[in-house]
Amino acid sequence: MKSSSSSSSRCWRYDVFPNFRGEDVRQSLISHLRKELDGKLVNTFNDTRIERSRKINPELLLAIEGSRISLVVFSKNYTSSTWCLDELVKIQECHEQLDQMVIPIFYNVDPSHVRKQTGEFGKVFVETCKGRTENEKRKWMRALTEVANLAGEDLRNWRSEAEMLENIAKDVLNKLITPSDNFSDFVGIGAHIETLISMLRFDSEKARMIGICGPSETGKTTIGRALYSKIKSHFHHRVFVAYKRTMPSDYDQKLYWEEQFLSEILCQKDIKIEECGVVEQRLKHKKVLIVLDDVDDIELLQTLVGRIRWFGSGSKIVVITQKRELLKAHKIAHVYEVEFPSEEMAHQMFCRYAFGKTSPPHGFSELAFEAAKLASNRPKALKHFGSSFKDIGQGRVGEDSIETP
């Protein structure tokens, strides 16, 4: 039975815990995998400083418990290590009790041999089991069978090890980018975020700039904030800002924008600069996440995100604006168009704000459709109208839920 504490509410110390036999894969698969994960800012546990002994180190047990995902690399001589097997037992416990994700990787071994402890893999396991207690053997066998039955990767199914590792790193990153409850009331937010993450190409180390465009009150800022909330943990330097022109002098305005921007993204209070053009110098080799909201001035873009080459590899930049021509002028080719929700979607949005679910309680259906129509399918108005009916809706839902004795 899984713990009542969900995975989303836990505080994870590491993103990934790798379980492997060092002599088989440390200098090959694991070193290459670490490079892939490090490039995506995935926080991977490293055991090189832990002294190995007969009994598993308590520090390792805590590291397993504190990891969001465990990667288990089954190699030919994996079961020759009781250390690996004891880690595996703990990983299986965390999978069942803490909802930890586990991804098995079969490195030149047959998954069925791991599940059933047969073939050359099984012979090594039999040797390791000699002199061990029945309880130990049962725990090891169960862990091997259960973990090997999970969805994973088999090197034999890939053209190269590099392709497999690239796919694993991408899969890990996608699993770590989890939805935020802060935007759960915005119906359809998941589809927006999924598309935007795909456009940002997290599977590539190239810096990328995209635009979010659409009329006023379509929810562009909410979508941008939800995106930022989901991916910000993968960037040391990140910022979500909206700046407007406040000075008559162009040069003074650009200088002020740069000072404010650098202070926020570098987390340094009141940065002062003497001339424009410092953004490129300060962020040239840094992996950054930048979301510029409500942009209506081409000078702002040219000052803060003039060229994609200003930023380090893996950087992601999002420009939110009502003006499609502004994105074109700045040569932003990848643009996500946000439109007003359909009638059905608007109805669901109103119901979410009013009644806490996407459909109305008995007797409120006509009201919900009329309210959505009155709001002209505008998300902001739908939220305002829905919130006004919230107390009424909750009271009615409560009455409907009373069971007749």
Automatic annotation (TrEMBL):
State whether keyword Hydrolase applies.
yes
Which residue numbers delimit the TIR domain? Answer: 12-176
Annotated SMART domains: TIR (SM00255)
Can you tell which superkingdom this protein's organism belongs to?
Answer: Eukaryota
Q: Provide the GO biological process annotations.
A: defense response; signal transduction
One Pfam family of this chain: TIR
Q: Name one GO molecular function term.
A: ADP binding
This protein's UniProt keywords: Hydrolase, NAD, Plant defense, Receptor, Repeat
Identify this protein by name: Toll/interleukin-1 receptor homology (TIR) domain
User: Organism, per UniProt?
Assistant: Arabidopsis thaliana x Arabidopsis arenosa
